[in-house]
């Protein structure tokens, strides 16, 4: 079976945050992750790509466009931690939606927003700690 051709490639800046309602918590304590998101979307709606930060972490992505309004997508990312021990398998799930432009706004960016969930336990970037599966964060991406 022949693969569908890639019809759209894009590069995004990615950030994710723990969902903590305490306004006294500083931004650095809320950050779950950041990096670059590269997507390739084929004519049949399948998605491949990568997400990560060079020299620290990188996940290979697979997923699909969702039949939603606004347009959404679901992705699974798997990869190996590049720092610390370099052996921890990471697996995350993502669900993003294109945010609509707001009336009266100027210089509006193209933005994806949604959720990220840790699907497998793994140590931190330095190879220590225990990051438990099931943790959900809020994520957004800004198109370059």
Oligomer: single chain
Strand order of the largest sheet: 1-2-3-4-5-6-7-8
Span between N and C termini? Answer: 33 Å
Report the major sheet: 8 strands, antiparallel, barrel
Shape: globular
Helix content: under 10%
The fraction of residues assigned to DSSP E strands is over 45%
Listing every helix as H and every strand as E from the N terminus to the C terminus, the arrangement reads EHEEEEEEE
Mean pLDDT: 91
Structural class by sheet pairing and helices: mainly beta
**Low-pLDDT sequence parts:** none
- Helical segment tally? 1
Rg calculated over all Cα atoms: 16 Å
Number of strands: 8
In short:
With 144 residues, the chain is mostly beta strands. 3% of the residues lie in helices and 54% in strands.
Features:
mainly beta, 54% strand, 144 residues, single chain, 8-stranded antiparallel barrel, globular
How does the SSE layout of this entry go?
Blueprint lengths: L5 E13 L8 H4 E12 L3 E8 L3 E10 L5 E9 L8 E10 L12 E8 L17 E8 L1
Antiparallel strand pairs: 1-2, 1-8, 2-3, 3-4, 4-5, 5-6, 6-7, 7-8
Summarize the structure in words.
It is globular, with a radius of gyration of 16 Å. The longest helix is centred in the N-terminal third of the chain and has 4 residues. A hairpin with a 3-residue loop joins strand 3 and strand 4. An 8-stranded antiparallel beta barrel has the order 1-2-3-4-5-6-7-8. It is mainly β and 144 residues long.
């Amino acid at each position: 079976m022949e693969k569908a051709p890639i019809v759209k490639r894009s590069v995004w800046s990615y950030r994710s945050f723990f969902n903590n309602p305490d306004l006294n918590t500083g931004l650095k304590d809320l950050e779950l992750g950041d990096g670059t998101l590269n997507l390739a979307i084929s004519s049949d709606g399948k998605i491949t790509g990568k997400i990560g930060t060079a020299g620290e972490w990188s996940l290979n992505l697979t997923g699909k466009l969702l039949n939603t309004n606004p347009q959404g997508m679901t992705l699974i990312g798997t990869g190996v931690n590049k720092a610390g021990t370099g052996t921890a398998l990471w697996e995350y799930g993502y669900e993003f939606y294109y945010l609509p432009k707001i009336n009266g706004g100027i210089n509006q960016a193209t933005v994806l927003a949604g959720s990220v969930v840790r699907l497998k336990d793994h140590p931190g970037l330095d190879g220590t700690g225990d990051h438990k599966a099931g943790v959900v964060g809020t994520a957004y991406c800004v198109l370059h």
